[in-house]
Design goal:
By secondary structure, the protein is an alpha/beta fold. Helices cover 32% and strands 22% of the residues. The longest helix has 13 residues. The chain is globular, with a radius of gyration of 17 Å.
């Protein structure tokens, strides 16, 4: 039997839906998987916006088809990575995410961007997802890595 306090915590956790902002550069296969998973209420997250680093990405098209707002922040419009990351951070913050997911974004985010979206005990609120290109995986699947501490996978 589950202790009453733990049952209460489980009920609260089940009712919480995390707000995801997903960043993309390409076709959006990882984004499509997140959108599909979020259709299940037990998933615990919903994609509230998608950001792209260029116009016309397949990921942006998938988001629009699902009724998800899309924003584009093109690096060429900024003096450098720091300025672009700051502009991207402002767009992301406007959607009040609980979690920022880089699902195939082919850009390096500034340390200031990453720091802005860290919260909580382990100070992580960003994730990176990428399609595996290892020969063993034949390019299929999604590998996700925490972005937080040195030595973490994907750091």
């Amino acid at each position: 039997s589950t202790p009453p306090r733990q049952a209460q915590k489980s009920a609260i956790a089940a009712s919480v839906t995390a707000r995801l902002v997903v960043l993309v550069s390409g076709a959006g296969s990882n984004l499509a998987a997140l959108i599909e998973a979020a259709l299940d209420p037990s998933y615990g997250a919903s994609v509230v916006a998608v950001g792209a680093d260029r116009a016309g990405t397949g990921g942006a098209a998938k988001a629009l088809a699902a009724g998800i707002p899309v924003f584009e922040v093109a690096p060429a419009a900024y003096a450098g990575r720091e300025a672009w990351s700051a502009a991207l951070a402002e767009q992301v913050a406007g959607h009040q995410p609980d979690l920022v997911v880089s699902a195939g974004l082919m850009r390096i985010l500034s340390p200031q961007f990453v720091a802005r979206f860290r919260v909580g005990r382990d100070r992580r609120r960003s994730r990176r997802c990428r399609t595996s290109a290892s020969p063993r995986r034949s390019g299929r699947g999604c590998a996700c890595a925490d972005r937080g501490r040195p030595g973490d996978p994907g750091r």
